[in-house]
Amino acid sequence: SNDVESDLKHVLFSKEQIQQRVNELAAEIDADYQGREILLVGVLKGAVMVMADLARALHSHITMDWMAVSSYGSGTQSSGVVRILKDLETDLMGKHVLIAEDIIDSGLTLSWLKANLLSRGPASVEICTLLRKPDAAKVDIDVKYVGFNIPNEFVVGYGLDFAEKYRNLDFIGTLAPHVYE
Ligand code: PRP
Ligand code: MN
Ligand code: MG
Question: What pTM value is reported for the model?
Answer without folding.
Answer: 0.95
